[in-house]
Amino acid sequence: MMISLLMAGLMLSGAFAWYRESKKEDSARGIVLLALIAAAIVFIFHIMNSEHDFSNLIIITQHAWIDIFNIEYALALDNLSIMLLLLTFLLALVALLISWREIRHRKGFYYFNLMATITGIIGVFTAVDMFLFFFFWEVMLLPMTALIAIWGHENRHFAAIKFFIFTQVSSLLMLVALISMAYLHQQQTGRLSFFYPDWLALTLPATTGYYLMLGFFIAFAVKLPSFPVHSWLPDAHTQAPTAGSVLLAGVLLKTGAYGLIRFVITLFPQASIEFSPIAAMLGLVSILYGAKMAFAQTDFKRLVAYSSISHMGFVMLALFSFNHNAYNGAVITLLAHGLSSAALFALAGMIYARVHSRDLADMGGFWRSAPLMGGFTLAFVAAAFGLPSLANFIGEFLSLVGSYQRFPVITIFAALGIIGSAVYGMMLFQSAFQGPVKNTFIDLSIREIIISSSLLTALLVIGLYPNLVLQFSFKGVM
Amino acid sequence: MELSTFIALTPQLVLATGTVFALILIAWQRSQQLLALFTQGILLLALIASIASLGDGQSMVTILLKVDDYSRYAFILVLIASLVVVQLSKTMLRRDIEVHDEYYVLLLLVALGAGVLVASDHFASLFLGFELLSIALVGLVGYLRSTAYAVETSFKYLILSATASSFMLLGIAFIYAQTGQLSFSGLAGITNAANVSDTGVLGQSLLYQLGFILFFSGIAFKLSLVPFHFWTPDVYQGSPTPITLLLATVSKVAMFVVLLKCCFNAAQIDVFQQSALADVIASIAILSMIVGNTLALKQSSIKRLLGYSSIAHMGYLLIVLMVSTTGGINFAWQSVLFYLSAYLLATISLFTVLALFEAGNPIEHRLGSDIKIDDWQGMFWQKPMLASLIIIAILSLAGIPLTAGFIGKFYLISFASQQQLWGLLVSLIIGSGIALAYYLPIIFSLFRESNKESAADAAVNTQTLTWSTLSFNQLFVVVLTILGLGLGLFPNSLSQLIASLSL
Question: For a 10 Å CB count at each end of chain A, is N or C smaller?
Answer without folding.
Answer: N
